[in-house]
Specification:
The chain is mainly β. 10% of the residues lie in helices and 35% in strands. InterPro entries: PRC-brl_dom, PRC_barrel-like_sf.
Length: 98
């Protein structure tokens, strides 16, 4: 996926309505998870990414700072993110519990 034409999100877009269900891609552009929900807003935002599983079953929720993600909109306006983390690194994080 060529991200060079995608528009970075503004801090004001760091909210549940914009980010929920956004796919997250690793450095090799493979999908490594999906944002399930958001804690905070703006500069102090953290997101819960569901990693692994199939169709939402068996996924492990992990908490990641928004600063670890490069969030953007593609040409169709769909929100997605990229990170330097691998799926294995995210899976190694502690499970997030509410």
């Amino acid at each position: 996926m060529d991200h060079s034409k995608h528009t970075p999100l503004q801090r004001s877009d760091f909210n549940e309505a914009t980010l929920a269900n956004a796919p997250i891609y690793g450095a090799d552009d493979s999908k490594i998870g999906t944002i399930s929900h958001v804690h905070g807003a703006g500069a102090v935002t953290e997101v819960v990414i569901d990693v692994g599983g199939f169709l939402g079953i068996g996924a492990k929720p992990v908490l990641v700072s928004i600063d670890q993600l490069n969030l953007m909109r593609d040409e169709d306006g769909e929100v997605h993110g990229r990170t330097a983390w691998t799926k294995e690194q995210l899976k190694a994080l502690p499970e997030h519990r509410h």
